[in-house]
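Continuing from the previous page of notes. For each protein in this section, the sequence appears first, followed by its structure tokens. Read the first protein now.
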Amino acid sequence: MNRSILGLLAAGALLGTGPCEGPVASELTNGRVVGTWGGENAGLIGDDTSAHVHIACTFGNVAQGIEPGSDGHFDVAGSYVLRAYPVYVGPSLPARFQGSVTGKVLTLSVVVQDTVADTTVTLGPVRLFLGRDPQMGPCPICRTPGERMASKLLTGG
């Protein structure tokens, strides 16, 4: 191979491999929950500016980076869809994403204000592990942070 092709291959390896790869697992970055965190029927994909969560066949989004305090705890506002699979019914509801990070283990609960049923729903707590793929069973998971909103609109996930 010539040098320009090798250079392009090396650049591609540094930037990621494709739209379904998601972020590379890493420790807290700039004090934020970044990377893929997976567990049994749950997952979180975070970056510096947002996070996307699945618990069972539901999902939600945080429109900011999750930045735990000095004690490892966090509590951030976001939105959550309780009626997402197998048919997306919606709507997106106000929610609090609460939990803690200890090393490579994240404990997460989501408290959703279900304005449709006029009740509060708590999902979790679930334990997620940095770098582990979410084990979602029959439920799909959005894997690429940049495609979260497009995927939500197109497929409900």
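Done with the first. The second protein uses the same format. Note its length before scrolling.
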Amino acid sequence: MKRTSDIELSLVIPVLNEMETLHTLDEAVHQALLDFEGNWEVIYIDDGSKDGSLSVLADLVEADKEHVRVVSFRRNFGQTAAIAAGIDHASGEIIVTLDADMQNDPADIPMMVAKLNEGYDVVSGYRKDRKDTFITRTIPSRVANWLISQVTGVHLHDYGCTLKAYRREVLLNIRLYGEMHRFIPVYAHAYGARITEVLVKHHPRKFGKTKYGLERTFKVILDLFTVKFLLSYSAKPIYLFGGTGILLMLLSGLVLFYLLVRRVFFSISVLASPLFQMSAMFFILGFQSILMGLIAELLVRTYHESQKKSTYTILKVMNIETDKNIQGD
């Protein structure tokens, strides 16, 4: 439940078995925001830690009830769910996310907030000089970043950097599932957000062990399929399914025409090769794909109309009385 307050800045920090770093992290956060002109809060989300992190977080709340909040999960739900919970409980007009392992540097937060105040909606951190294992972390990350940039058209060097700053309004229409937190800039761009990237410091991990491995690269690739579909075809799925269906049916027609030419001019039986069965299969798959597109169209309309979700977003209106029931801003 959001609190009604005049808080301007909210830090959202997912925590999973980071007991050794929490006191140092909290001191670094307070030091970084010592000269911040405005009210701020830091929200720690305990993602089902088993090492006593929650007890440390309780001590931090007791030491600074003005700034420190804690949300504790019943079990481990993952980083995306933790970030989503932090955003839901944040009160600030500016929301900054960062990791709890002290590899992100809280000292970069004022610089990112200042950059946001230049007129941007999203400021993404870029760990140019990463302090991670090159083979298992850095190389897969670079490949994933390049692939995401090419597929989505939102060119960032470091999607995996948790240290990012957002204006609250760009997060209001974004719902996070699975491992989708790294794609927030992509979703924000789809709503017309202005995005920039800044260099941030990156430190080697001093305590604990990383929660990420090579398997996460494969998860990113799978999530990328979902993101591409939601951004490009969620409003008109018939373009994807119908287009694929038409291509398959055209291919089926071309194969049949080829078989007909062979039969008429070379007296080769249509059933003498598997091409006839392939043609029939392509036609059936194409027809089914078009039907799937029509069903998806019905689901999309049900989704938008039942939740009164708009197919557009508004930056501002001038000299117009806005109906409170109208969605889209």
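What the second structure shows: The CA atoms of residues 184 and 313 lie 16 Å apart. Confidence is low (pLDDT under 50) at residues 324-329. We return to this in next week's lecture.
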